[in-house]
Predict the structure.
Amino acid sequence: MQTQMLSNNQADIKTAVDFLKAGELVAFPTETVYGLGADATNEEAVKKVFLAKGRPSDNPLIVTVSKDIEIADYAKLNDNFIKLKEAFWPGPLTMILPMKDDSFSKSVTGGLQTVAFRMPANQLTLDVISQLKKPIVGPSANSSGKPSPTTADHVFHDMNQKIAAILNDGPTEVGVESTVVDLSNETPVILRPGKLTAKDLADVLGVDVLDATSNISLPSGQIPKAPGMKYRHYAPDKQVIMFDRLDIDRLNEVLTTDDVVMALDETLAKIKVTSDHSWSLGKDVNSAAEALFSGLRYYDDIFDVNTIYVEVMPNESVGAAYNNRLAKAASNQYLQ
Ligand code: TXA
Ligand code: MG
C-alpha cells in the first residue's frame, strides 16, 4: 500500500480521522517534528506503530491531545501540571503524570504507571484529535534511531508503504522534539531538553526544576528516566563530528573533498568548503535547531560523503536541546 499524502483542507482532515478510526497509522505535523499517530485507546493500532518504526517495545509513547480530550479521565492531575498547561499548551512541552486505573495499554506506557501527555501547537493535528474524540499516540515519525522528521518528505522516506497517510503541513518550526518533564513526583524533573528550558518552567512554577540531562544530582529515591534516551539516536549512518567555531583553523586543515560541513552562515564564510558541501544552519540557535535534522538526513543519503562536521551551539535556550541531539548523532565525537 502506497502511503497517501494529505494536505491542509477539511476533506483531507476527515480522511486522516477515518484512517485513525479504522486502526490505521497517520503521520501528523507538530511545531517540533512530525509524529506517527494511532488511536491511543486501540491496542492493535498502537502495536503497528512499534512495527512501522522498528521501536523497542519497552520505550513508552507520548499521548497527544487537543483541548477536547479530558486528561483527568486518564491520569491524576496536579498543580504543577495545571500551571504549566496554562502557560505553555499548546506548545513544545510533554508532561508525565501518574496514570489512572490502567487507562492505557502496556504498549503505550511500556509497562510504566505513568503517561506522557503533549498538546502540540498545530491546528491540523488538534482538529484531527478533536474530530476523532480520542487521544493519539505520537512518537516521532522516523525509523527508530534515525533523526526525527521535520518535513512530510522525511516521513515519506522512512514510512512509505508502512503507514496509511501523512498529513502535510510544511516544514516544522522548532526542529527538535519537545521538552519532556516528569511531574509524577513533587520535584519536576526534565528528562529530555527541548526549546522550553528548566528555567522557563521554574519561572512559571516558582519552584526548582531539576534537569536530569545536565549533571545535577537528584534527590535520593528519584531515578527518573525517559526510556527512549538510552538508545543510540538521531544518528545517520555517516560519521558525524562536532566542532566549535573557535576551532575553524583546525577544521580547515583536516577537511577533505569527501567531507561536508553544517554551520551558521557566519562560520561557513570562514571555512574552505564549496557550497554543495555545506549546509547552512542560518543565523542563530533557532534556525540551527530547525535545520539540524534536515541536514543530517540529506547528507546521509549522499553516497560519496565521508564525514559530516557540525557546529556546536551556545548552550542557551534551544541551543541546549540542539547540542543534546547533535552529541547523540556524533556519539560524542569532537574534532581533535
Ligand atoms: O516533540 C515531540 O515530543 C515529538 C512530537 C511528534 O510530538 N514526539 C516525540 O516522541 O519525540 P518520541 O516517542 O520520539 O519521544 C518521547 C520520549 C521518549 O524518549 C520516551 O522514552 C519518553 O518520551 N517517554 C514517554 N513516556 C514516558 C514516561 N511515561 N516516562 C518517561 N519517559 C517517557
Ligand atoms: Mg523519537
